[in-house]
Amino acid sequence: MIPNFIPTHKGKIATYSVGAGQPVIFLHGGPGDTHDYMRRMAEPLASRFHCIFFDQRGTGQSEILNRTPDDFTLNLLFEDLIAVKNYYKAETATLVGHSWGAMYALFASLKFPSVFPRAALLNMGPLDDEIGAATSQSLLEALSPIEKENWTSLRKARNDAREEGRLEDVLTADKEMMRLRVKSWVFNPDLREVFLQEYFQDPPPDREVNKWIWEAIQGWFSWDMLPSAKSDFWVCVGRNDSVPVEQTNKLARLAPHSCVAIFENCGHIPWLEYPERFYNELTSFLNHSKAVNRKVLEDYEIAYPNPIRLHIGDKVQVTKRETNPDWLGWVFCIDKNGVSGWVSETYLNIEGSSAEVLRNYDAKELSVKAGEKVYCLMEEFGWAWVRNEKGHEGWIPVKNLEGLK
């Protein structure tokens, strides 16, 4: 794919796109990797969305002249992202970031919620020092004693070579380190060589860029920022990734508009280990509209005045599934207090007749009158979560709304 180039601070950004429709910008990991692996990941999505990629500053085909650490600040990364969005004439865009790219997406959404109102955060890197230390420890725990010694030696050799400008030695050490790291990145041993073959076909990571960006972002993020976050987040994580799943749960608890997808027996690359589920859930998130104004066609009265309300980690009993063809995907649940109600299966990890709640849920319905205007915030299997002009929110059937089917 031939890149288009966008001028930026002291250089140019290489950007690529495929498909048509809603603009989705994919942010690769690293820092210091290139867009290539994200382009492969997005191939199943190109028939439904305008998939946009770019090599982040200083990586791949993107060039920064006479570069120094001052050329890799978070503000400049934000400027690059806005420039890419503007190049494709998008007023807003959804972000899909992986690893470091998920951190990039989170930070950009917190900074510019009206520009990036939705972000899929895939296997995000560590957000604070404590989680960073736990991540390093988890990575080592996947290795044998001899492999741990090799890892420590290789890491020192790589860092020394980076400081001394010996690029070939950096790349050699990086390659050997990835052969060890893959044990915590890919849970299924049969898929590790598949991953390595794809990984090694891409340009090697730029370790100088990696170092500068990690240094530049220190102190920018605070967990106190999340309760006031306005963007919607889909937070996806493998249970066996080196980054502890507790980070994902903490983010989901604090960010008011977030949902979680935890992949059991999965590492850092969920689309490799569980492609069907991954693409189904990511596509569902990308398809959800944000605050679409709709007219009510038919009155609706609340049918369940005592709605079930659930939180991440709650356990419920599943007693039956919806059989109405228009509403397939809902299951009837009972919580620990005996409160019952219908719950979308996308909120649950169902095993037999029990389930664990993956994201906060409220079954509250909303009474509406024909002719009034509401904002459709979310759709789930024939039902829409809406807000009326008085600010009240709740579920109503999609069939009661103009322009939705």
Salient structural properties:
405 residues, Rossmann fold, SH3 type barrels, nine-stranded mixed sheet
Cα-to-Cα separation, first versus last residue: 37 Å
Identify the overall geometry. Answer: globular
CATH superfamily of the largest domain: Alpha/Beta hydrolase fold, catalytic domain
Which segments are poorly predicted (pLDDT under 50) over 5 or more consecutive residues? Answer: none
- At CATH level 2, the architecture of the largest domain is 3-Layer(aba) Sandwich
Give the radius of gyration.
23 Å
Overall tally of structural domains: 3
Number of strands: 20
Please give the structural blueprint.
Blueprint: E1 4-8, E2 11-18, E3 22-27, H1 36-41, E4 49-54, E5 63-64, H2 74-87, E6 94-98, H3 100-111, E7 118-122, H4 129-141, H5 145-164, H6 167-185, H7 192-201, H8 207-217, E8 232-238, H9 245-254, E9 258-263, H10 270-273, H11 275-287, E10 292-295, E11 309-310, E12 315-321, E13 330-334, E14 340-344, E15 348-351, E16 354-357, E17 361-362, E18 373-380, E19 383-388, E20 393-397
Parallel strand pairs: 3-4, 3-6, 6-7, 7-8, 8-9
Antiparallel strand pairs: 1-2, 2-4, 2-5, 10-18, 11-17, 12-13, 12-16, 13-14, 15-16, 18-19, 19-20
Structure overview:
The longest helix has 20 residues. It is built from 11 helices and 20 strands. It is an alpha+beta fold and 405 residues long. It has 3 domains: 288 residues, Rossmann fold (3-Layer(aba) Sandwich); 59 residues, SH3 Domains (SH3 type barrels, Roll); 50 residues.
